[in-house]
Design a protein that fits this description.
The chain has 542 residues and is an alpha+beta fold. The protein folds into three domains: 130 residues, no CATH class; 208 residues, HUPs (Rossmann fold); 70 residues, no CATH class. It contains 23 helices and 18 strands. Strands 4, 5, 6, 7, 8, 12 and 13 form a seven-stranded antiparallel β-sheet that branches. Helix 4 packs across helix 23. The radius of gyration is 23 Å and the shape is globular. The two termini are 29 Å apart.
């Protein structure tokens, strides 16, 4: 479990411990970092190590050529040697809380797939991997107008911004330093975009996956009908001695995953476990903490029981995040398109939204950008935020690794020509290199004809999206259809409209009637997620 909560407010400790116990049905431990700062965590979900003049609390999954967790840090004796290990080659998704000589440093992996949030006012400071926990425990927190709009239209927020006005997310490549009851964020990593040949990249991928043989536990690879999990499974079947596969029904894919995953598993000679979708989780308070407000609590209701089932069978799961980067799926988009600026304007008539999006992005990166700007931003800003929410949820039960969201494997992709990546050609070649036997198995479709039709539909949708007149016509047609209306009714059946605090949202420039009239159903569902999050705050303090 990657949950931790660090604070200098001793009066908050007991209430936060009680809250965590209520939500996760386990009582956490409390550790003393300095005379002024304490940390709340679960004993069996942290790796702890004493170093010269201090200690390390390590959360998540990390490894190198020496092995996993303690083996990876075997030669770390002081803060300086830890920094060297972090910067020269520690893989995985993790956050370290390091105490030396009375100073606290908090650093994540180079991508930052475990999101870290922090808050400070005149008296109190708090750092946690649980955004909702900060909102519930610290006084004076309000909704961020820009952050809420970004979340409900994109299921993510940009750079350091969160849905709360006073709470920040640790930026890409930065670390937190706490001293004298002050939280400071500063540069930690220097990034180099490596230019590898295809053969060199294949060698790096195989070497990385081979290190996973050092893991002492039951390992599985997710397997669906798509490019991304197929690539991971293709490499894993060749490089990892003991690896199985798992799949689950996807309510959005018309049965494609159910049809294709057994075929791929059979060709790769992987034992396949079919995970059943059990009862949905209707405890929205739990869901808010479960995803740290990084996912829609209504539309993601099947996740908890599915993950609980998975990690009763396996200890670590390999996921496919990063595949969209390998296909440069969004590289042709502008940041305005990437963050739905035009859609926000049409729904909410918000002219400032676009300006604030670009201002936050410009502030987030202080190094030379790669040629694949949108592909890079999608990966390290959007994917690490909402993808990080999924990673956080997995760590509640077991351990998760998305190999192609590790900086070591994903950074060379930004140096390949975008045209080489687009359309999946590069990804197909990688799959073919590691598993030529699955070359004739179609992707995301039961037959190649449907796959071609899907490509044509995607091309037409792009043409419509880029044409204001065609977009307006298509929007009217869509809004007049019964599908969206039926979906909204379904959402309201699960969460009555009367429970939405319309005044709260109007104060930050969001009218519920506009969302219902011109917004997609998923926008409404995410708005309900924010409404549910804020409804648990102490209104007298907030």
């Amino acid at each position: 479990m990657s949950l931790f909560y660090l604070t200098n407010s001793t009066k908050k400790i007991n209430s936060v411990v009680d809250r965590i116990e209520k939500i996760f049905e386990r009582r956490p431990s409390v550790g003393e970092l300095t005379d002024d700062h304490k940390i709340i965590f679960f004993e069996d979900k942290v790796y702890r190590k004493n170093i010269r003049n201090g200690q390390i609390y390590a959360f998540g999954l990390f490894f190198n050529e020496r092995g996993f967790l303690g083996e990876a840090l075997e030669q770390v004796e002081c803060h300086e040697s830890l920094e060297k290990t972090l910067k020269e080659g520690l893989f995985g998704h993790y956050v370290f809380v390091v105490v030396t000589d009375g100073r606290i440093n908090i650093v994540a992996d180079k991508i930052g797939m475990l999101n870290v949030f922090y808050y400070q006012n005149a008296e109190n400071l708090c750092v946690s991997t649980d955004l909702q926990l900060i909102g519930e425990s610290m006084p004076g927190i309000k909704l961020s107008s820009q952050g809420v709009k970004e979340f409900i239209f994109n299921e993510t927020t940009i750079g350091s911004r969160t849905v709360f006005e006073n709470v920040k997310r640790l930026r890409f490549g930065k670390a937190i330093s706490i001293a004298n009851n002050s939280v400071l964020e500063g540069k930690y990593y220097n990034y180099v975009f490596e230019n590898l040949s295809f053969e060199e990249y294949v060698h790096r991928v195989e070497k990385y996956f081979t290190l996973l043989n050092k893991y002492d536990g039951r390992m599985t690879t997710d397997l669906s009908g798509g490019f991304d999990t197929r690539l991971v499974s293709a490499v894993a079947h060749k490089a990892i001695r003991k690896i199985e596969a798992n799949s689950n029904s996807n309510q959005f894919d018309r049965g494609v995953d159910d049809f294709l995953s057994p075929i791929v598993a059979r060709k790769l000679k992987l034992k396949l476990t079919k995970l059943k979708n059990k009862d949905a989780c209707d405890d929205r308070q739990k869901m808010l903490h479960y995803f740290s407000i990084g996912r829609d609590v209504i539309r993601s209701r099947l996740w908890p029981s599915r993950l609980e089932t998975k990690y009763k069978l396996f200890d670590m799961s390999l996921g496919g995040y990063g595949g969209e980067t390998i296909r440069a799926k969004y590289n042709d988009l502008s940041t305005d398109d990437l963050y739905s600026s035009s859609v926000v304007f049409k729904v909410l008539n918000d002219q400032e939204y676009r300006v604030l999006v670009n201002a936050e992005l410009n502030e987030s990166y202080d190094f030379q950008m790669p040629l694949q700007w949108a592909n890079f931003v999608y990966t390290v800003d959007r994917m690490r935020v909402w993808g990080g929410a999924q990673v956080y949820a997995n760590f509640l039960y077991g351990q998760i690794l998305h190999p192609f969201m590790d900086w070591h494997l994903i950074n060379p992709i930004f140096s390949f020509d975008a045209e080489t990546l687009k359309g999946g050609g590069f990804q197909k070649e990688l799959i073919r290199t590691f598993a030529p036997q699955v070359d004739n198995v179609p992707i995301n479709s039961k037959d190649r004809v449907r796959y071609k039709i899907d490509l044509i539909k995607k091309w037409l949708n792009e043409k419509i999206r880029k044409s204001n007149s065609l977009y307006a016509v298509a929007k009217r047609i869509k809004m007049s259809s019964s599908n969206d209306e039926a979906e909204r009714k379904k959402i309201y059946a699960q969460y009555p409209r009367i429970k939405i605090d319309t005044v709260l949202f109007e104060k930050i420039g969001i009218k519920l009637s506009d969302v219902e009239e011109r917004g997609r159903p998923d926008v409404l569902s995410r708005l309900i997620t924010i409404n549910e999050a804020f409804s648990h705050f102490d209104k007298e303090e907030k």
